[in-house]
Write a structure and sequence with these properties.
By secondary structure, the chain is an alpha+beta fold. The protein is built from 10 helices and 6 strands. It has helices spanning 2-19, 24-27, 39-57, 76-87, 92-111, 128-149, 160-169, 171-178, 213-220, 238-244; strands spanning 118-121, 124-127, 186-191, 198-200, 207-212, 232-234. It has a 4-stranded mixed beta sheet with strand order 4-3-5-6. The radius of gyration is 18 Å and the shape is globular.
């Protein structure tokens, strides 16, 4: 858990540095990856979901809707949209302070729980370590969304290891959720930003995905389609894996 917690803190620091000093016009910059949302909406969503993570770690997730605002929806996306709509318009300084507070609270609450403890989340129960990793993944994705809105690239460093591992480990769940059977295990051979190789899976399973870790994480985060990357997929489930893989519920 310490490695995930450390990288979650690093991710929050990166986003904080990006947001600090922005003027009102910058906070109102549209974020193309999140249609209808601007920078302030993305940050509000992160604050709301971090608050939900605190509630989960403290055993009171059932008392709060995902957005934490008493609103709901038929799907996760609808809940997120209605949550943002309910609180949209907060002054940037107030919103930044709120996000900083909830991000810190999420790190503290998740760090206080045994990594193997099962916690309630959107799609059911998951280990505390996994929930912390999903928070890292979402923070990385939305930091990248804001970076791209400002003409900057997604950050690619060793934090991607946790995100790639999460996506790989949840491939069976993705098949189950889609009501599909898989041909067997999936192996990843990913090139990390710093060079070398990250291997997920052992032996010679029927399906193999190869390529850059950044590409795989962007596909899993639904920020790129497979054909927009250099990923190479081989085996009976190759196309389906890249269509279903994801890092969030």
């Amino acid at each position: 858990m310490r490695d995930v917690a450390k990288d979650l803190a690093r991710q929050h620091e990166e986003l904080d540095a990006l947001l600090t000093g922005l003027d009102a016009a910058a906070w109102a910059t549209p974020v193309p990856a999140c249609p209808g949302w601007d920078v302030s909406d993305v940050v509000l969503h992160l604050a709301q979901t971090d608050a939900a993570a605190v509630a989960s770690a403290e055993g009171r997730f059932g008392e709060a809707v995902l957005a934490g605002t008493g609103v709901g929806g038929a799907t996760v996306d609808e809940v997120a949209e209605s949550g943002v709509a309910a609180e949209r318009g907060l002054p940037p300084a107030e919103l930044l302070a709120r996000w900083r507070e909830t991000a810190a609270a999420a790190r503290t609450a998740l760090g206080a729980v045994d990594p193997s403890t099962r916690l309630t989340w959107v799609a059911g129960e998951l280990a505390a370590r996994t929930l912390a990793t999903t928070r890292l993944s979402e923070a990385w994705i939305h930091t990248g969304d804001i970076q791209e809105a400002f003409g900057l690239p997604f950050t690619a460093d060793d934090r991607l290891f946790h995100i790639a591992r999460l996506a790989w480990r949840t491939i069976p769940y993705a098949f189950q959720r889609a009501g599909l059977d898989s041909a067997g295990e999936v192996k990843l051979e990913l090139e990390p930003p710093g060079g070398g190789m990250w291997l997920f899976g052992k032996g010679s399973p029927p399906t193999l995905i190869r390529g850059h870790a950044l590409d795989f994480c962007l596909v899993a985060g639904r920020r790129r389609t497979p054909d927009q990357t250099g990923l190479v997929a081989e085996g009976p489930d190759a196309r389906t894996v890249l269509e279903l893989v994801r890092t969030y519920a």
